[in-house]
Amino acid sequence: MAINRITGMASGLDVDQLVKDLMKVERSRVDKLDQRKQLIEWKRDLYREINTKVLALRTEAMNMKLSTSYKVFSATASDTSVLSATATASAIEGTYKVTVDQLATATQRKSYDATPENALVSPDLKSSDLDPIDFSVPLDLRGKDLKLTFNGVQKTISWSATDDPTYANLGELITGLQQKIDNVFGTNQIEVAAGVGNQLVLKPKDSTFKPNIVVNTGTNDALAQLKFTNGQQYHISLDTKLQDLKFRSGVLTFESDKADFTINGVRFQIDKTKTLGELISTVNADTNADVTMSYDTTLDKFTIKRDSTGAGATLNVQNHGASDFLTRIKVTDAAALTPGQNAIIDFTDPNNVTMTNLEMSSNTFTLNGVSMTLLKEDAAQKTITVTKDVDKIYDNIKNFIDKYNETIELIAAEYSEERYRDYQPLTDEEREAMSEDQIKLWEDKAKSGLLKGDSILGSIMNDLRSSISNAVTGIDTSYNQITDLGIKTGSYYENGKLYINETKLKEAISSRLNDVTNFFSYSPTNLQSSTLSGVLDVNGKDFKLTLNGIQQTITLSGTYDMSNSTDVQTLTKEIQTKINTDFGTGQISVSIYDSKIILASNKGYTLKLNSGTVDALATLGFNDNDTYDSTKKGIVAKAYDKLVISTSRLVDKAGSSTSYFDVSTLGKELTRLDLDISKQEDRLAEIEDRYYKQFTAMETALNRMNSQSAWLSQQLGGN
Question: Which residues touch 709 (CB under 8 Å, ≥6 apart)?
């Protein structure tokens, strides 16, 4: 709503400045709320920054819990021209022996005809049959030339102005042209032959090698007299439209203006205005057809080859309607089909277990943890040597230690950073009076120490340091301390930072990898029974179960047939229900897998089984004192458990930048502050309005008084 204000017309006072000065005092309360909000936002951002580091360390710890971080092997093949190899985590060290008896091949169809010459798809390179060479007068080519390209090499064929004869007939021309081509390209490269009527034919001499031949215009062109056209070539061109293609057996016939055919059940309908290259690309792009179509320019043949190798794969092709594309490229004949075959190898693993005539549908496969790619057949035995990749395993451990150090350094820095309480967030008015550099220096002080002595950070540091520094129980005692692996903590002021003795750690990895693996990733197995079979009579039998020091007696009832799935489910449900009753839901899970009962602590607690009064343990396949001890974990397993809790606490405190609704402790506090600030802003607006109303009233009164005074003066002056 618009407010009419009178600002000092009668009094001469600077009312706006007076109100502004009066509002400074009133605004101090809102400024304090804004400052409080800014501090909380800074604090929230610091928590989130720390959580990002903690999450990165948690991810690294998760990776380090996996055996793949330690079971890293390298594989070296004795002859890389025959096969290549890489080792997976399931490989074992040692020497593998391989003989490549046969490579896997793919089923394919290749242009075929009983007469080899007719299996070619391109027509011969011929002079015009519509306008034959004119020998009514001797053909005079003196001073003429043309360019001829064979197998990508272009040369000039020329006739001198004085020495070369004229040609009275086609025979003389063939003999003369053959001699000139032989002089330039060598004998037995290009054959000059007679076509229908007075036609010249150029074709490759070798019946098995069919490189392209191209004729082009010369300086003093002879093409017109020889009845060739510039750019005319022996091979069909992938850039030619289907409707313009000329094959050795004729031109294409179309079904509704399309090349219409099916390969392996996939139907292709390619418009005749598309090029041959576009047709091939369309076929090759369809993964359902599982083929690659190609045109071999050295053989002048088409090949349709399955993408997958191995014996037994079919390759079916079919034209539709009047379309004859597959017929023109000569792949429809049954003799054009070459079935695929499996790879065959002889294989011996490091334990001297030998498998002979082992068939694989692909040349790339994994066997006994070694991934191999066969490259060529060789009757001689080859070896693959698998060794542990010490450097890679070392790098994996170092990456975890580096992220641990980064996390500890960040948390420790925030935990101990000096707090400058005299430096509060700047108000808008204070910021206006400062330069950018001054603002930055001030805010650096104001942000400093916001998390000094924070209980969450202190807890995270203590948890991480204890996870790393405490001995690992349940493993070899000579390798259960971090120092046993050549890793030590720095000085006290470095807050538990770790340093690696590279030589000692690599030596440990090389000589005692299992112990190194256990130190980092060892985790106790859940309580698991022996394999159960037959009928289990547990009616009235019991056992004692201890969860984190609290022991309860579990008494069962009933008889259960382990071959009956309903009985198995009922037994599982009964044990789970009894445990839930005594310990609460969600503490322990019960399952039966592969005829074995599994008891798992859902929260990482310690479990222990003891015999009951009328003991059920023997019937259930357990032993007295079977224990799951959650404390017997490697350092990364312990650290991971602590990091899961830490990230949860940080999110509860400061929320996540990806959360749409922030319901964290600080998020709720910021919401309350926003409401308080909004209320205070409304209150300030009311106070400011009141001040202006008061000054307006004063100005109105002064105006009235001035008017009265002027009237009195006028009256007195008149007398």
Answer: none
3-state secondary structure at position 548: coil
Task: Tell the residue number behind the tokens 């004859």, with chain if given.
Answer: 324
CB 134 within 8 A of CB 204: no
First-to-last CA distance in the chain? 49
Strands (E), 602-709: 607-611, 627-628
Phi first, then psi: give them for residue 506, nearest 5 degrees: -65, -35
- The burial class, CB within 10 Å (0-12 / 13-18 / 19+), for 36 is middle
Its pTM stands at 0.67
**How far lies 484's CA from each of 78, 394, 478, 521, in Å?**
37, 15, 7, 15
Q: Count CA within 13 A, CB hemisphere, residue 584.
A: 7
In the block, residue with structure tokens 């007076």: 18
With 0-12 / 13-18 / 19 or more C-beta atoms within 10 angstroms meaning exposed / middle / buried, residue 295 is buried
Residue type, 386: V
Per-residue tokens: 156: 């000039």
- What are the residue boundaries of the structural domains of the chain, listed by start? 76-104+342-387, 124-226, 241-332, 527-631
pLDDT in tens, 102-114: 999 999 999 998 8
The 3-state DSSP composition of the chain as helix, strand, coil percent (nearest 5) reads 40, 25, 35
State pLDDT tens for residues 609-623.
999 999 999 999 999
Distance between CA atoms of 641 and 636, rounded to whole angstroms?
9
Task: Kindly state the greatest CA–CA separation across the chain.
Answer: 150
Q: Does domain 241-332 have CATH number 3.30.450?
A: no
In the DSSP assignment, the letter for residue 221 is B
The torsion of the CA quartet 458, 460, 461, 464, rounded to 10 degrees, works out to 160
